[in-house]
Design brief:
Layout (H helix, E strand, L loop, with lengths): L4 E6 L3 H11 L3 E6 L5 H8 L3 E4 L8 H10 L8 E5 L4 H6 L3 E2 L2 E5 L4 H13 L1
Parallel strand pairs: 1-2, 1-3, 3-4, 4-6
Antiparallel strand pairs: 5-6
């Protein structure tokens, strides 16, 4: 039996992380952070297999989160995926699933597509 993967969700909206915890919880061990300034600290303590991060957040946006993780030797190699509402599912497809230079998917995509994108990033 394979070990369950752990996903770290980063979104300033607790409703989003609560929803995703429910949807992803049957497949992943899920840890959520609603304060993006805590991501590096939580990633260091939780050792996630993937980080799923919103882009448009106050105080620290997804790009700043990604840069902070990349600067820390113990978090820089964790697979990272943007989950954002700034692109539609069709725009995400037109961008070949790359948003701001990183793998990404629209929050408005069907959950099956979001799960497939997470699996692809974890497996890469």
């Amino acid at each position: 039996m394979s070990e369950r993967k752990k996903a770290l969700l980063v979104d300033d909206d607790p409703a989003v992380t609560d929803y995703l915890q429910i949807k992803l919880g049957s497949r992943y061990d899920v840890v959520a952070v609603n304060d993006p300034t805590r991501v590096v600290e939580v990633a260091r303590s939780e050792h996630p297999d993937v980080i799923v991060c919103d882009i448009d957040m106050p105080v620290m946006d997804g790009g700043a989160v990604c840069r902070a993780l990349a600067q820390a030797p113990d978090t820089r190699d964790i697979p990272f995926l943007y989950l954002t509402s700034i692109v539609s599912p069709s725009e995400s497809a037109q961008l070949d699933g790359v948003i701001a230079g990183r793998p990404g998917v629209s929050k408005h995509a069907p959950m099956v597509d979001i799960l497939a994108r997470i699996r692809a990033v974890v497996s890469a």
